[in-house]
Amino acid sequence: MSSSAAQIAHAAVDEYSTFASLRLGRTVQSIVARLIRFWDSRNVNKNGEFMGITLLLLDEMDSVIHAFIPANRASHYRPSLKAGCIVRLERFEVARVAHMYKVTEHQFLIRFLPSTCLGEVHTDAPVIKSERFMMRRYDQLQVLANTNLELPDVVGEIRSVQGSDLSNDSATTRVVVRFLIEPNVTVYLTLWDEAASTFRGLLKSGDKSKDVLLVTTVNPKLFGGNLYLNSTQGTSVGAASSPAFTCVDTLEGIKRKEPVSIGELNAFISNSDEQTQEPDFLCKALVVGVNQENGWFCVELAVDDGKDSATFVVFDKEMTKLTGKEAAVLALDEDPNGEGDELPRCLEELAGKEFVFQIRVTPFNFTPNHRTFTVSTITECNTLETCGKEHDDNILPNREVEVTLAASSSGQSVLGNRTGVEYAEANPPEVKGAQKKRKLSSE
């Protein structure tokens, strides 16, 4: 602790400002507050460049303000930072809070200057609560979703957990929690990095009765009608006691073929770990058209299961089993001169027919650029009936809530500042010209 900080630590605390009385600028002001917590802030757009330390401070009037220590002063003040202690802060700058990523409701923030003094108050400290949270209801979270205006706090009950290597509390890969935040309202809580590691530590204790979580500083995102609460750099995770929950470790992946809807297929993409999952699914769907935009040697089928739609890609090997002829042979049969724009009749006739598609989900499906699902096998519809209707225990249960994800094979990264998760995009635009003719493509 610096000498100036030491002097503050033993100084009287009878003259200071409350957060409500702070004035803009570099005026001579001092505050006494509890340091609730602090975290390193990084710029994800510059490879995680360290920007400084963010602090949350609580005063005796139950008001919260956030302070910021720039990177060039972080090493000087870090030894003096201790979460939970009461501190006195002097000679700082008061500025207006930016309109984005607010972590408190206060209109101002405190900026540390080279002359700022920080010290712990050991005697005659005011009575200050230990915590205060910026809680938001479900309807408020929906309004905040996709705006990046606030990073609120939430409390809820764990319904199920899915992630890789859940017993390893040093792992920082994504963990997805189905989270009950209000009666009959379940959302997805996605934890990354340190928050994911902390949560694994709670699981490692082996006490699954701790299923009520208090999660701070989350970034709400709406996708396909579902609400996702994504952890941020400032997220902390705490647990209380309650009934047990389902915990699914996906380190070994999913072993059997699962019958799913298109919506459930997209939900799996949204909620699974791309580094550990490569399962097969069986999906029953009606072919509504053939997309000729990329030619038909690699056949793109627009499919629909009655609720959702997607694009399935079938390569020549599987199409040959269906049509009885290879693509090159079909091309010659339809147009020996290779100059026509006719779609082979056997492909046109696929429209209106229903099949069971075996889909292999690969790491490609978890990238921002994936546009389709690849079909490994096509079979008659009665195959699905023999496979059973129940999900394997290794799939994050989705049947308890209505899956309203707009089904598509497209993917979009909404990580923001490494706080989010990759989701499948909304329904792809309708397959234009599915029945139109175009010149044969060899691509």
From TrEMBL:
Record's protein name? Replication protein A 70 kDa DNA-binding subunit B/D first OB fold domain-containing protein
- Boundaries of each Replication protein A 70 kDa DNA-binding subunit B/D first OB fold domain copy? 30-118
What is the organism field in this record? Brassica oleracea
Extent of Basic residues compositional bias:
434-443
Q: Where is the composition biased (Polar residues)?
A: 407-416
Note down the stretches annotated as region Disordered.
407-443
